[in-house]
Specification:
single chain; alpha+beta; Aminopeptidase; globular
Length: 122
């Protein structure tokens, strides 16, 4: 099975939020899952949102297998633009324990490091 990590695209916005809710419903129940979905939607609406670090992994049929969101952490001062929050992370239940979250998170770390290098150059 081919697995591709992608940055968030408009066509995945609704399905990825629903994906997160579905995964958390399976593991935590409906009410906590609804809260996590609302977290995703709220982060997207804030200045802390980094669309290039909202990531999904899809299969060859373009079905979402995994999800991770990195965003800025609200902190004023010296480290204001250097901290990231990783939340939430979700992997389709039947694909858990196959390193999907690890692969997405490592990819996110690489993208964040590259963005920091580019930011310092500018």
């Amino acid at each position: 099975m081919n697995r591709i990590i992608k940055n968030m695209e408009n066509k995945y916005l609704d399905t990825s939020a629903q994906f997160v809710e579905d995964v958390f419903t399976d593991s935590e129940g409906k009410e906590p899952a609804s809260i996590v979905k609302q977290l995703v939607l709220e982060i997207r609406s804030k200045r802390f949102y980094l669309p290039e670090l909202e990531l999904i992994m899809v299969d060859e049929l373009d079905c979402i297998l995994g999800y991770a969101m990195f965003s800025r952490f609200h902190l004023e001062g010296k480290y204001e633009n250097e901290l990231l929050l990783l939340s939430p992370v979700a992997v389709k239940t039947e694909f858990q324990r196959q390193h999907i979250s690890k692969d997405i998170i490592e990819y996110g770390f690489e993208k964040a490091a590259q963005a920091a290098i580019n930011e310092k150059r500018n």
